Amino acid sequence: MKKTATFAVLHFSVAFTITYLLTGNWVLGGLVALIEPAVNTVAYFFHEKAWNHFEQKRSVTVS
To answer: How many Å apart are CA 48 and CA 3, to the nearest integer?
Structure first.
């Protein structure tokens, strides 16, 4: 859990820093740092579902 928490802090920090450096706006940097990881989490969930679906389909055709 500690590794996950530190990765989340790192992810938020990178998202904030890059957005701030590109825009010069700390509010926009904060919004992107909150929204982008949340959207990525949802996208990852669906990516895993699709990946598992194709893996199961592949294992049935290989067997």
So the answer is: 21
Which DSSP state fits 46? H
pLDDT in tens, 1-50: 888 888 888 889 999 999 999 999 999 999 999 999 889 888 999 999 99
Is 45 strand, coil or helix?
Answer: helix
- Joined together, the tokens standing for residue 15 give 């998202």
CB 16 within 8 A of CB 8: no
Write down the pTM of the prediction: 0.66
User: In this structure, is the dihedral angle defined by the CA atoms of residues 36, 7, 43 and 22, taken in order, positive or negative?
Assistant: positive
